Amino acid sequence: MSYAPIEALARELADLANRVDPAVADAVGDRALDAVGLADEAWQLPSPLGSVWVARSRRGVSYLCPHELDEFTSEFRARTGRPLRVRAAGEADPVLRQAVAGADGRGLEVDLRAVTGFQREVLEAVREIPAGEVRAYAEVAELVGRPRAVRAVGTALARNPVPLLVPCHRVVRTDGSVGQYALGPAAKVALLRVEGVAVP
């Protein structure tokens, strides 16, 4: 007996994890979504900004923020429609723990399916900025081939689902001032100073 059709169906269900419609999620329940691989795992991990919650799907890290678990879960569900399975911090991959703590996380897989194509291009470009260096919003717009889309670059960075791992804190204004940040300007200044960047 061939299991190929069942395996193909399982792959298709797993590929639905871009975003699960909330009505579907409510109808089938978290346990069913978990059974077909549509639940992300989550850990609370230390970072340069204190403890943060981190979610990871089968494709990579999907969400990161410093909120309390209830707010984190609610925001994650609103973005993806997927449930979370909370795990003990010690169960997290050491590479993930080190990246969240401030090590170079460029080798870590991130799941950016919840953002648009342009936003993904921006985030992928920003991911290549090394620690201790900054780029202007205009430079990032040039990197993605949209030199006039400076404001759109800022919007894409504001919607970054995995700050720290996609280091949007390393993007500043042309005049060198820090500008905005998904986790707040004070957090951006703190991260840049940790990396040795002179912040005006």
Describe this structure in words.
The protein has a four-stranded mixed β-sheet. The protein has a two-stranded parallel sheet with strand order 5-6. 41% of the residues lie in helices and 14% in strands. β2 and β3 (60-65) form a beta hairpin. It is of the alpha/beta class and 200 residues long. The protein starts with a helix and ends in a 6-residue tail after the last helix. It folds into two domains: 4-101, Double Stranded RNA Binding Domain; 117-194, Arc Repressor Mutant, subunit A (Orthogonal Bundle), CATH 1.10.10. The chain has helices at residues 4-15, 22-28, 30-35, 69-80, 94-101, 117-127, 137-143, 150-158, 185-194; strands spanning 40-47, 50-57, 60-65, 84-86, 135-136, 171-172. The relative contact order is 0.12.
Question: In a nutshell, what does this entry contain?
Answer:
This protein has 9 helices and 6 strands. By secondary structure, the protein is an alpha/beta fold. Strand 1 (40-47) and strand 2 (50-57) form a beta hairpin.
Sheet with most strands: strand arrangement: 3-2-1-4
- Global mean pLDDT: 86
Shape: globular
Percentage beta strand: 5-15%
Radius of gyration using CA atoms only: 18 Å
Q: Largest beta sheet, briefly?
A: 4 strands, mixed
Q: In terms of structural class, how would the helical and strand content be classed?
A: alpha/beta
Straight-line N-to-C gap: 68 Å
- CATH topology name of the largest domain, in short, is Double Stranded RNA Binding Domain
Q: Topology, pairings included?
A:
Elements: H1 4-15, H2 22-28, H3 30-35, E1 40-47, E2 50-57, E3 60-65, H4 69-80, E4 84-86, H5 94-101, H6 117-127, E5 135-136, H7 137-143, H8 150-158, E6 171-172, H9 185-194
Parallel strand pairs: 1-4, 5-6
Antiparallel strand pairs: 1-2, 2-3
Helix pairs in contact: 6-8, 7-8
